[in-house]
């Protein structure tokens, strides 16, 4: 039928594997045999079944996505990009970024998540219709019955694989992420390297796309960690450090909200963890600092805020040790410490009669004691006191301005 150049023999298993090109798939319709299976290795991850000429002889078909170093991303000398190239292509400080993310509590989802509210039995025309009636409650919570099955668990696993092994490959082909490269993406986690300045936006995009992919199910979330390294730093060691950052992101929510210890959904950048709800505010702070620097230089404000951030965190740690109170109680106690009026004085000194700018910064900085009540100009709510994570946008703004 056609010439097969590459094949592998597995004599001990009594099997043989042949490699053919996609354009020859239709010729497999003429092949007859027992135990023939065809696995479509879809590198592009964006070719639909309807666009492929598949064999029609009942042969078992399955998909497997391939991941490999994208050789299409090249330097000006038409050479494939390496770690050093990604670091040098970064905006601001020249560093290689590592991004690791994975799905939160996936094991619990498989164990407890595949359940539905129990319903009463309806009797119509002398026939019983189980599961059609009203929801059965035990106290205030609906009584749930297990609905896990092999097909449901397989479907969930396959859909996650489609997102991480399929969709993300397509996502990184967009121009805005041209300086990012997938090392591994499959199952329920990913490992991406690239120019560090593109990774925060990429992580946010993956978070939003995953929420949409899961129909905004609150029990399905994703957390991640981003770290920066010099171009010759061992990549294996860098991946371990990024993994630790990812773990820190998963614990930030339980650190603040004891009654929501099973919920994670956070992101950690260079050692500072934040919940996703606060990301929009953190991003706007970094943008404000960057714009002010570009418009005339107000680098002193960033330095001052960094000092106040370090001081406030030191005060909180002292209260946690001395009084053994919660994080939220400690931040509430220092809300009216001297840093408060000193910061107001600094804003008035730096901005003078620019009341709009003073009001904008005041709205961000001075509600830090009340957990969940800080709202920025876009309406984004700060779930955790700003000074607890202000180091994150300060670091991003600083790294973007470095030559």
How would you describe the overall organization of this protein?
This protein is of the alpha+beta class and 403 residues long. The protein has 12 helices and 18 strands. It has helices spanning 83-88, 106-113, 150-171, 199-213, 235-256, 279-295, 299-323, 327-333, 339-351, 355-365, 386-389, 391-401, and strands at residues 6-10, 15-19, 37-42, 60-65, 96-103, 115-117, 122-124, 127-129, 137-138, 141-142, 144-146, 180-186, 189-195, 222-229, 266-269, 272-275, 374-375, 381-382. The strands form 7 sheets. The protein has a 6-stranded mixed sheet. Strands 1-2 form a two-stranded antiparallel sheet. A two-stranded parallel ribbon has the order 3-4. A hairpin with a 2-residue loop joins strand 12 and strand 13 (189-195). The radius of gyration is 27 Å and the shape is flat. The N and C termini lie far apart (61 Å).
Number of helices: 12
User: What's the pLDDT, averaged over the residues?
Assistant: 82
Largest β sheet strand count, sense and barrel closure: 6 strands, mixed
Q: Could you name the ranges where pLDDT drops below 50 across 5 or more consecutive residues?
A: 369-380
| Lateral strand order in the biggest sheet | 12-13-5-14-15-16
Q: What is the element string, with H for helices and E for strands?
A: EEEEHEHEEEEEEHEEHEHEEHHHHHEEHH
Q: By helix and strand content, what is the structural category?
A: alpha+beta
């Amino acid at each position: 039928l056609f010439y097969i150049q590459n094949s592998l023999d597995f004599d001990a298993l009594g099997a043989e594997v042949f490699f053919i090109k996609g354009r020859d798939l239709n010729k497999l319709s003429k092949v007859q045999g027992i135990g023939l299976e065809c696995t479509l290795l879809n590198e592009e991850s964006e070719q639909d079944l309807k666009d492929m000429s598949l064999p029609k002889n009942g042969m078992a078909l399955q998909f497997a996505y391939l991941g490999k170093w994208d050789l299409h991303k090249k330097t000006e000398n038409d050479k494939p990009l390496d770690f050093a190239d990604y670091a040098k292509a970064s905006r601001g400080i020249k560093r290689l970024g590592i991004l690791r993310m994975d799905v939160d509590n996936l094991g619990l989802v498989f164990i407890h998540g595949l359940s539905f509210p129990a319903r009463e039995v309806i009797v119509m025309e002398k026939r019983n219709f189980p599961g059609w009636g009203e929801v059965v409650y035990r106290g205030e919570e609906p009584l749930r019955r297990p609905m896990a099955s092999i097909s449901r668990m397989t479907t969930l696993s396959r859909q996650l694989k489609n997102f991480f092994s399929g969709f993300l490959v397509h996502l990184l082909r967009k121009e805005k992420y041209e300086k990012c490269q997938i090392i591994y993406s499959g199952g329920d986690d990913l490992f991406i390297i690239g120019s560090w300045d593109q990774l925060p936006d990429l992580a946010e995009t993956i978070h939003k796309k995953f929420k949409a992919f899961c129909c905004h199910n609150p029990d399905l979330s994703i957390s991640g960690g981003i770290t920066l390294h010099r171009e010759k730093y061992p990549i294996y060691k860098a991946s371990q450090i990024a993994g630790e950052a990812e773990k820190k992101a998963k614990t930030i929510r339980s650190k603040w909200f004891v009654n929501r210890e099973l919920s994670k959904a956070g992101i950690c950048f260079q050692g500072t963890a934040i919940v996703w709800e606060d990301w929009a505010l953190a991003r706007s702070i970094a943008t404000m600092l960057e714009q002010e620097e570009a418009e005339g230089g107000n680098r002193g404000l960033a330095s001052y805020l960094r000092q106040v951030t370090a001081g406030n965190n030191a005060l909180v740690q002292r209260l946690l040790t001395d009084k053994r109170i919660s994080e939220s109680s400690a931040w509430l106690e220092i809300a009216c410490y001297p840093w408060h009026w000193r910061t107001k004085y600094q804003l008035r000194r730096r901005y003078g009669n620019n009341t709009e700018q003073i009001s904008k910064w005041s709205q961000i900085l001075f509600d830090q004691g009340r957990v969940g009540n800080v709202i920025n100009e876009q309406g984004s709510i700060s779930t955790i006191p700003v000074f607890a994570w202000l180091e994150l946008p300060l670091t991003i703004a600083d790294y973007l301005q470095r030559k």
